[in-house]
Amino acid sequence: MEEIFKKSLEAQLEKLSNKSQKNLDKKLVRAVCAALLEVFCTIPARKADTPRAAYFSAEFLTGSFVTGSLATLNLWGICEQVLKQKGYNIEALEKPRDPALGNGGLGRLAACLLDSAAATDIPLDGYGIRYRYGIFRQDIKNCEQTEQIDIWQDNCPLEKQRRDEAVLVQFGDTDVLAVPYDVPIVGKNQINRLRLWSAEATSPVDFTAFSEGNICSAFSKMMDAEAISGFLYPPDNTEAGKELRLKQQYFFSSASVQSILRDFKKTARPIGELSDYIKIQLNDTHPTVAIPELLRLLCEDFGRDFETALKICGEIFSYTNHTVMAEALECWNEALFCRVVPKVYPYVVMLNNHLMQRLKGNKNLSRISIIENGVIRMANMAVYVSHKINGVAKIHSEIIKESIFKDFYELYPERFLNITNGIAHRRWLCLANRGLTHFANSRLGTDWQENLPLLEQIKQFNSTADLDELAKIKAENKKALAKYLKNNFELSLDPDYMFSVQIKRIHEYKRQLLNILSVLGLYIDLKNGELKDFYPTAFIFAGKAASGYYNAKQIIKLINAVSRLIEKDETAKKYFKVLFIPDYNVKNAMKIIPAADLSEQLSTAGTEASGTGNMKLSLNGAPTIGTLDGANIEIVDYAGEENNYIFGAKKEELACLTNYDPMNIYYSSDRISRVVDLLKQGPAGDFTALFNSLLFGDDADRYKVLLDYPSYQNARLRANEDYKNSRLYAEKSLINIAAASHFSADQTVGNYNKKIWKLM
Ligand code: 26Q
């Protein structure tokens, strides 16, 4: 494989050398793609009747397909070498904007699972939407987030349009053409596929309108159709545009189900065997409308009766839940649903009737039903039909059984299971952190790259020389990040500072506010001469706020305002640096994560389903400062509390906490009131909205920022103290790297297969 790639790339570069050097980066990407495609030709294609799984997801946050393929096939090294020989730089591959077709963790998990399935010979295909514009590009202007349109589409030479496999999706008002774009997701022994659908009008212009001179209405059908795959929705709760989101969901769910049925026909097997051929994993409730759609097609196109069709669907579908917040479970107004997708609606009603019939007499029927008071509850539909329902970390899988799905758990306990998330270590370690990869290779050989649990053994290499080398690798990564930030964002960062890193979507439950308030607390202490021997620290933030989420945007503004405040203060800037890195995305994450000294995982216990950034940071040697929440619990179970900085109220303690009153904390603690008061026309500006959210209203300090503040501040000072002893800290780092070997997405996707799909 390496030979073929090398020869082909050399030939490609030879051709390039005769051409103009204009748009060189793009040309280099194309050259590498061409060489990759030659390699792909040597990998056996899947047989038509191979049993397979399909991952239905409204989001795939893949990052560059080119670098991803190089990582899985382990061709990065040779690629770098060949490019260098010819006088080119591999950084060119990172220039194009990534396909950013996701918001955060759920979309990135989809990409990690696809990568790992390909690498471990599991036939798993992804199905989603090829959004014209992905998640917005974020800039910071005057401390505030601004949103720019994300243009990525001419940058993806590995994808292939398959107009010959287009399908028709029927809505109440019109039909839309779904055109698939396929990207090969490669492993060394097999190729899977990510199929993303793009919406088009069945005919581009209305000629009658056109010839009457009515240009706008001549094109309006085209624009309406294309709007369906136009934008990725950010997760906020605004009512506007809801109809379009339902259209998106039905658009890709229906197209994907139709495409699967078409592929199945090629096997010439009877429809009764469909569930031996395909398993469909629903990534949250977003694609749940695929259930009534498949029911409909089985009944109407294949002549099955409802009961038989339902049984087949039950064997095919399973559902992964990614959130504990009841308000995030998707619901549709019944009348809207009926108007937008009238062909599917009767099957939802039949499903609901079926449920009412079967569970007649159950005292909680009104909570379990699929339709209630004119609202269709997609989560209930997914749980009622699926044969397996999983959460994404141990604690989360317990929580959903006790809370949102309690009634269903009592009825069908055997359906519920946990599958803890994982990460594609080939990208997040082998590719992102070359230094650490080399460190492991030279001690363990390279087998661990295909079998991450073997990396556990790295913990034996804890001699002084080993730890010094590890510390040096971190120092190099920090310098590389500083340089990257200077070159790309004109941001300055001193690599000698400790890097404390909180990178994720901005959300109140994730508590970036706790982090920045604590920085303000340290600042006050410094000014009062109460802060002794503090090791200079860079508090690094990155993440996007949903455009309609006011408080999240205020938090970004506050972080940047505190950054300015410190920058202007000659004493403070010797100890602190606050840095907000704009436009958090896969590419930037790959630079930031290897450089982190400390991983900030601050969610209120019981709110973060799992987290996956926590795993990436841990695998790259950053101990966690965090709450006992999501997968933090499992990270610390493996790595030991003594090697991490755990703080804050536990989930059980919060459950006992009735009548929480943040005002009491405010009045009884000077340290806290001093900091919180700075939000009101303080030196950083006016943040009354945040001040009020902490102290006033029914849901004052909903996420217990003030409650956990003292123990957080304490943990932060402990970490800072430990960091001064670089050898001791490197040892903690080493233990975390070894322990994070449990979080490979290879293992996660292997569990999906073993426990749910059972493909082989
Ligand atoms: C819903 C309705 C309308 C518009 C948007 C949405 C919407 C979109 C995206 C709701 C939720 C999401 C994304 C959720 C998500 O990313 N969840 C994260 O999933 C990760 C993978 O399992 C977990 O690690 C994180 O803990 C969880 O927050």
Could you describe the 3D structure shown?
With 760 residues, this protein is an alpha/beta fold. Among the domains are: 1-42 and 66-97; 48-63 and 98-268, 3-Layer(aba) Sandwich (Rossmann fold), CATH 3.40.50.2000; 478-651 and 707-744, Rossmann fold, CATH 3.40.50. It has 32 helices and 21 strands. Helix 1 packs parallel to helix 4 (76-85), helix 21 packs across helix 28 and helix 27 (662-668) packs across helix 28 (670-677). The two termini are 26 Å apart. The structure holds ligand 26Q.
Computed structural class: alpha/beta
Mind telling me the CATH superfamily name of the domain at 478-651 and 707-744?
Answer: Glycogen Phosphorylase B
CATH architecture of the domain at 478-651 and 707-744, by name, is 3-Layer(aba) Sandwich
Distance between the termini: 26 Å
Q: Provide the gyration radius in Å.
A: 26 Å
- CATH topology name of the domain at 478-651 and 707-744, in short, is Rossmann fold
Please mark out the parts with pLDDT under 50 across 5 or more consecutive residues, or reply none: none
Average pLDDT metric? 96
| Shape type | globular
- Largest sheet data: 10 strands, mixed
Helix content: 40-55%
What portion of the residues fall into strands of 2 or more residues? Answer: 5-15%
- Strand segment tally: 21
